[in-house]
């Protein structure tokens, strides 16, 4: 690997950089080894002995990367450093000192500055700056991130005059550019001067070594290998799906049967007199989560992601079997009913005959898909306001029943705990009396 110094703004970020290196190399945990052959840390709180070992080992070529702060910025004149990376914010003067750590052997070096695409509360456009006004450190960093001019000239003017210019018409920029031309400076290779070569350079960095680095920096590197993307894919949590109106009754029956049957399953596995009952292990909230993510559950592993692990042996397998059976019944168009209860036949007044266009001989009788609110309004001659009030009252009653049921479960559990405590105290008292 190419000898590199990676500068961070804080001690904690130096460790984050090492974790990122492990992720890119696909060797998790290697950054925590003190004798790593890839990268080490260096900051102000590093022990004196560790600092000396880090400096001497890096100078001897025992490892190629140092994740450090500005504590390593001055006093080191290593000629083997070929690349510098800077993460976090600072000021252009300090960054220019970091950049000066590479390329001291006369060969071309590479400095990579990682900046924010858009800083919250910062100046993210050239129009946000007022020409002629004094720039603070934050303003200079914001200007350095968005300036379109040559970065070599920008650093030079900042060192001399304390500001980052943003225009090619700046008199100081024109003066510095003409001075470099008169002195036959080599052509600048910054990302603003050679914008077209930036993408190729960054994609080829993963092939960088001591033998190929010069070709990569000079844009002469050619390879048959395809660069791989090491960035981790962003995982998207599946969203809960709403239940369609025509399936709400079926889903409600499935939920009710699932809860009642699980209580029986729990009692069979643990016992009816157990301290922890079925609703404590698998309740309505868990059932709602399953219903909302039915299309994302294809195995017990998927089920574990949504409701957690097992509280009793065979819980996930039992639930998954019920989910699979319910999905099969949904696909076939029949209603899921684990207790095999038959629904009442549909009302003939609401049935219509539908004739298919392909064959007039095929006729199917289906329930008319009239909006439920309109159907009830016609049957009961009630207004929408009255129906809404009844629906709210029914919902309030269901909430009250659920609340009473939970309170009863808690009271039963409290009594069981009190009985257990009393039994333990009685046993202790008996043992003391016998002694």
From TrEMBL:
Gene Ontology BP annotations: double-strand break repair via homologous recombination
Gene3D superfamilies: P-loop containing nucleotide triphosphate hydrolases
GO cellular component: chromosome; cytoplasm
EC assignment: 5.6.2.4
Keyword DNA-binding tagged: yes
Catalytic activity: Couples ATP hydrolysis with the unwinding of duplex DNA by translocating in the 3'-5' direction
Top EC group: isomerase
MF annotations from Gene Ontology: 3'-5' DNA helicase activity; DNA binding; four-way junction helicase activity
Sequence segments annotated as region (Disordered): 224-246, 378-407
Domain of life: Eukaryota
Keyword terms, alphabetized: DNA-binding, Isomerase
Compositional bias per record (Basic and acidic residues), positions renumbered to this chain: 398-407
Entry annotated with the keyword DNA-binding: yes
Similarity annotation: Belongs to the helicase family. RecQ subfamily.
Name the UniProt record assigns to this protein: DNA 3'-5' helicase
Species per Swiss-Prot/TrEMBL record: Puccinia coronata f. sp. avenae
Lineage: Eukaryota, Fungi, Dikarya, Basidiomycota, Pucciniomycotina
């Amino acid at each position: 690997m190419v000898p590199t110094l990676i500068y961070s703004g804080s001690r904690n970020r130096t460790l984050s950089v090492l974790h990122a290196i492990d992720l890119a190399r696909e060797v998790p945990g290697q950054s925590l080894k003190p004798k790593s052959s890839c990268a080490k840390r260096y900051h102000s709180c590093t022990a004196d002995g560790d600092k000396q070992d880090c400096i001497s080992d890096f100078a001897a070529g025992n490892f190629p990367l140092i994740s450090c702060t500005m504590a390593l910025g001055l006093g080191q004149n290593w000629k083997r450093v070929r690349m510098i990376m800077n993460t976090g914010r600072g000021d252009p003067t300090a960054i220019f000192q970091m950049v000066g750590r590479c390329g001291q052997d006369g060969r071309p070096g590479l400095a990579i500055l990682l900046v924010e695409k858009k800083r919250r509360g910062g100046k993210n456009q050239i129009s946000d700056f007022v020409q002629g006004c004094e720039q603070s450190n934050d303003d200079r960093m914001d200007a350095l991130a968005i300036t379109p001019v040559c970065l070599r000239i920008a650093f030079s003017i900042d060192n001399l005059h304390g500001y980052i210019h943003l225009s090619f018409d700046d008199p100081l920029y024109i003066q510095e550019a003409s001075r470099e031309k008169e002195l036959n400076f080599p052509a600048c290779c910054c990302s603003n001067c050679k914008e077209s070569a930036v993408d190729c350079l960054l994609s080829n960095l993963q092939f960088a070594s001591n033998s190929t680095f010069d070709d990569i920096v000079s844009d002469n590197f050619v390879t048959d290998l395809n660069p791989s993307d090491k960035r981790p894919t962003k995982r998207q949590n599946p969203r809960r799906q709403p239940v369609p109106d025509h399936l709400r009754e079926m889903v409600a029956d499935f939920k009710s049967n699932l809860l009642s049957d699980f209580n029986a399953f729990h009692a069979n596995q643990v016992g009816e007199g157990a301290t922890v009952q079925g609703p404590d292990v698998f309740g309505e909230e868990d059932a709602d989560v399953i219903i909302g993510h039915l299309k994302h559950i294809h195995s017990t592993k998927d089920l574990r992601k949504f409701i957690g692990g097992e509280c009793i042996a065979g819980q996930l397998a039992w639930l998954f079997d019920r989910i699979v059976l319910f999905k099969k019944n949904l696909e076939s168009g029949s209603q899921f009913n684990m207790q095999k209860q038959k629904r009442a036949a549909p009302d003939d007044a609401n049935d219509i005959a539908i004739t298919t266009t392909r064959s007039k001989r095929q006729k199917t009788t289906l329930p008319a898909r009239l909006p439920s609110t309109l159907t009830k309004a016609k049957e009961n001659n009630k207004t929408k306001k009255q129906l809404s009030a009844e629906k709210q009252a029914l919902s309030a009653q269901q909430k009250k029943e659920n609340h009473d049921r939970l309170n009863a479960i808690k009271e039963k559990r409290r009594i069981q705990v009190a009985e257990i405590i009393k039994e333990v105290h009685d046993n202790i008292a008996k043992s003391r009396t016998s002694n």
